[in-house]
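Slide 14.
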Amino acid sequence: MSVFRLHAVVICLLLLAFTGSSADFTVEDFKQTRLEAEKGDPEAQVALGRMFFLGQGAPQNYSEALRWYRRAAEKGSAAAQNNLALMYLNGQGVPKNAIEAAKWMHLAARKGLAKAQLNLGALYLDGIGVGRNPPEAMNWFRRAASQGDSEGQRMLGQIHSEGQWARIDLVEAYKWFSLSAAQGDSESREARDLVARNLNDKQLAEGQRRAAAFVARPEPGGLAEPKVTGTGFFVGSDGYFVTCHHVVDPGTRIVIKTKRLRFAAVVVKADKTNDLALLKVTGVIPVQGGTNNPFASGGALQPLKAARADEANRTNLLKAVNKFRSLTVTNSDSIKLGDVVFTLGFPNIGIQGQEPKLTRGEINSLMGIKDSPRYFQISAPVQPGNSGGPLLDRLGNVVGVVAMSLNDLTFLRNTGMVPQNVNYAVKSAHLIEFLESIPELKNNLKSPSALAGDRGPTEWVTEVQESVALVQVY
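Slide 15: predicted structure.
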């Protein structure tokens, strides 16, 4: 791996690592958010700055974006401080000023924001706005990586493998590349495999041991991030939603994030044996914040019937809930070995973003891990964040729920080896039985005939993705 490649990664981070929601904002979102921002809510101010920066919901206006980021930054918002620093760095809405950029980046990094720590490390590495100081860069990269940031982990892997700013330590490089690769970073996966060729068996085992022993530790005072993210889909009506039990089990607060709105949800029934959970929407978060923390000041969940005092806004929110589109669940008994299947979900949102990703594969086996009859084994790529998403047949009907994969870290802990795209989905026969045990759902499920006809994914994916949403568990 060359020094040039390392610098290229740093530049991309500086340009792209803006914190904030990646949803497409509408004019209505803008109006609603501006009202909250003008009341002084820093989360809304970050969101408003994001809208002006992207030109979503309002014409693009860097000066206005800068103004709202500054207002939130001066109140201590780490997300705003990070974004403000990047605008100074790139000269967007203000003359370039690397020293001012470094000042704001320091504030955000010291608050524990991993992306700001990553960006600050990049500034120190190249001497931008601060004195060039590779050891200090390493310190900030390590702080970001220790919180579980995959890009920070990749940076440490590159530094340890190149040896320009720290001694060459291929075992340590293997550890950090492995951790980043386990989060779906393909570049780290390639780098890890390249490093592994230069390790003996003892060194490789030590690198695997270090990776398996790693535990991400968010810094005190850092922004609240979801403990787990996954995927799910609406069924029936009235806001019923399916995901995996293991996705929602560790959390106390659950958010279902659709393309434009976020909703509070609770678990109404769980099936641990088949790893299924049925949620129901109970509230709405009307303002899209920029800190990824819907429970911060000004972003608390509100009961659906009291989301807004005025009747007009309350009606709009009720209409949004009533627009939930459910997927069609068909019996998996008709599925045969070799059938083409698809997944739709939100893998690795920190790297790949929050747009749904469609993948294609085949039924590799009618039995799951250890020949369990509950699961299909599938070749469709599955990454962290896909759990709970629908497994779809060629017509867009649900024939399973994506449940698990033999991911890198699991295999490292148990076997010391890396798996080769081995993934599983709970069969829809168990899902149907689970859903029909709820009286109000039993006669309200969408009939498979609703998607009749020989349609390909390009014809049904737009319709289906309206029913699939990101799950954030806090």
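Speaker note: The chain has three domains: 3-213, 228-322, 332-467.
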